Amino acid sequence: MTAVVQPGLAPRQLPAVERDSGFYWTAGEKGILLIQRCACGSYNHPPLPRCPFCGGDALAPEPVAGRGRVATFTANHQPWRRGMAVPYVFAAVELAEQAELYVMTNIVDCAPEAVSIGLPVEVQFERHDDVWLPMFRPRGLG
Question: What average pLDDT does range 62-66 have in this prediction?
Fold first, then answer.
């Protein structure tokens, strides 16, 4: 996985770094993607207080490979905030670790028309102060 620091990016509305989900927003500083996992072995995202598979509460962040595929996406042409670059791609990326384990994210480093369902992608991180946003780019870009 890659940690990317990009000064001068357009401002984003950032997530709150809270006790239950803060690990997800800050692990990019170390170049890793952390996803909550239960003692039963199933992954949960977004983080939950109890496992939806077994009902257990033995949950902890665990590193994942940061690879997956685009399950669905949309290309947005509306700049919802001043200075926001358009078009941009918003996607559900299914992580390789588990079927139907989705991360909602942006697809970066490619033209929107190059994105397709099934496109193999890998994580990179976009830093904004103390938040590292997991973004995904087509796999094999270097």
Answer: 98
**Cα-based torsion angle of the residue sequence 16, 53, 35, 110 in order, rounded to the nearest 10 degrees:** -90
Query: Which is more confident, 79 or 51?
Result: 51
Q: Is residue 12 part of a domain?
A: no
Q: 100 lies in a domain?
A: yes
Domain assignment of residue 96, yes or no: yes
Q: What is the CA radius of gyration of the chain?
A: 15
Show the CA angle centred on residue 38, arms to residues 34 and 44, nearest 5°. 55
Q: What predicted TM-score, i.e. pTM, was given to this entire model?
A: 0.90
Domains contained in the chain, number: 1
Return d(Cα 41, Cα 57) in angstroms, integer. 12
Per residue in 80-124, pLDDT (tens digit) is 878 788 999 999 999 999 999 999 999 999 999 999 999 999 999
Q: Round to whole Å and give the CA distance between 58 and 11.
A: 36
In a domain, 2, yes or no: no
